[in-house]
Amino acid sequence: MATLQSELDNMTPSSLSKRNQDPTSWLPKPSPQYSLESHQNTINCIAFHPVFSSIASGSDDCTIKIWDWEHGELEKTLKGHTRAVSDVDFGGPPGGILLASCSSDLSIRLWNPADGYKNIRNLQGHDHSVSAVRFIPCTNLLASASRDKSLRIWDITTGYCVRTIQGHSGWVRDVCPSFDGNFLLSTGDDMTVRLWNISVISQPENKLIMDGHQHVIECCALAPPTSYQYLARLAGLKHGPLASGAAEFMATGSRDKTIKIWDARGTCIKTLIGHDNWVRAITFHPGGKYLLSVSDDRTLRCWDLSQEGRCKTLTDVHERFITCLRWAPGIVKNAPASYENSSETPPSGDYAKATAKVTGVEFSDVQIRCVIATGGVDRKLRIFAS
Predict the structure, then answer these.
(1) Burial 102-121 (b: 16+ CB within 10 A, else e)
(2) Tens digits of per-residue pLDDT, 55-73?
(3) Is the pTM higher than 0.85?
């Protein structure tokens, strides 16, 4: 009751206006800015370009579509995969950003946005459907997860697989790299979550194995440092995490309808309960205070990590199951000196964090873009923006 009274006391027009203008507190409103349609089947995945107002979506219709999310327009359709496109991701070095896609056709394709999204390379090696692809920040490497129970790391400049990582006993559904490029988080059908140290590519180390979910785990995410203060309290730490690394906390979403948050020791510090169906995708708010999730129950939920995971729910975000969720990466407000008088674009998102690590730019210099996107079985791409 005291908490509710405090919230009521703070619900003045001026405080609400201030909160709405603060990007660290921004949350999506029920009505999307755009509802984009063109795919002929389920949308499985989405990815924002780290600099421009472009977003890619991949579908069961075997195509990838490039949209302008600021204007709500379809820009291009990419064809090449022969089966469903399961994941897409933008990444690579600043000035050389690529789009990666993977598919049930066992292949990974690289597309060059600077050359009209020309398909420049195909990566072959997985023995079954490729479920997820993610560029590894600070490197020329790409990570992939597959139904063949393995993770693979690829050199995007040569197209060669430089390492195959074995450990999971079932389909690997998702993979997430840390912002410094030293860790990978993976999960899947064996109901385990695994944290890998890949700082030495020739000898990747399985640092943690986490158990606790009661069904297939669909998605995983590493928490940004901005969330450590809130997650440390959930973990019962008085002075924040013991270390300040890139893999202090992580989250997973499962078909058991729950989301679990884990610490660097592999302990589940919180189970978020509320979804009525499979949890399909999760992402941390760049401001650190919230965790967002989407589910087959057609809701988008915003969990307040500063209040023991209290939940704000947006219902009927899509007309059918929601399959994917992404937050637009932030942009560095003060570009490093190396980008002055340069034709290269200042880094953003993971690039911004990597640049912060290398050049000393503070995380607070990364400007949050208040834009998220969702996709679903209803074949619609929905954009929520401030």
Answers:
(1) bbbbbbbbbbbbeeebebeb
(2) 999 999 999 999 999 999 9
(3) yes
